[in-house]
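Rotation project, supervised by the postdoc (A.L.). Task for the rotation student: set up a whole-complex structure prediction and record inputs and outputs verbatim in this book. Inputs entered:
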Amino acid sequence: EAGVTQSPTHLIKTRGQQATLRCSPISGHTSVYWYQQALGLGLQFLLWYDEGEERNRGNFPPRFSGRQFPNYSSELNVNALELEDSALYLCASSLFLVGANVLTFGAGSRLTVL
Amino acid sequence: AQTVTQSQPEMSVQEAETVTLSCTYDTSESDYYLFWYKQPPSRQMILVIRQEAYKQQNATENRFSVNFQKAAKSFSLKISDSQLGDAAMYFCAYIRLRLTTDSWGKLQFGAGTQVVVTP
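Outputs recorded:
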């Protein structure tokens, strides 16, 4: 069974540009979560999508957005990139509602903003 | 406010020895889940162990076991017979069971503890 896959592995952008990161969940999982892992800050919850709807978002500005497609894959968009957006972006999937259902993570996309 | 605290930035252990990682959390809830995740240099977060708060029995997975002290809000991870492959960053995480719009789906992580295994 394929795990959670993310692309690209690495992405280099300059300040002000836009970045798009993609995630394919485990087959059968309807929920996709995005986390930001910046150096020294641990994992910060970004977004949760389920059945194509945004269910919750963390304390991030609106320039962080995303969507979930009918096949449950997801993309995260970061507009007007700032230097502090440099981080590892982790995608995870689960059956609906983590807790009773376990999160399975991808290997992440490393975004570098110059 | 920090919900999950890991006070040890780094722990070193020799092969075959035992190491214990500490985690404390802040909550007024009675029903919640706690997790330990491992992040090796490959970056992929891997679930090590999960504990339901309503279960008094400590969870165990092979060489990994937890000491769950609900009253003290403590959830430590013990790695027995440490192996070189155990070297990684370990994260403690919490999520409440009660659904609220604020907490829904939001797994909260500690800052992590780097485990170094020496031969």
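Student's summary: Chain B touches chain A at residues 32-33, 35, 37, 42-47, 50, 91, 95-97, 99, 101-102, 104-112 (CB under 8 Å).
Supervisor addendum: The mean pLDDT of chain B is 92.
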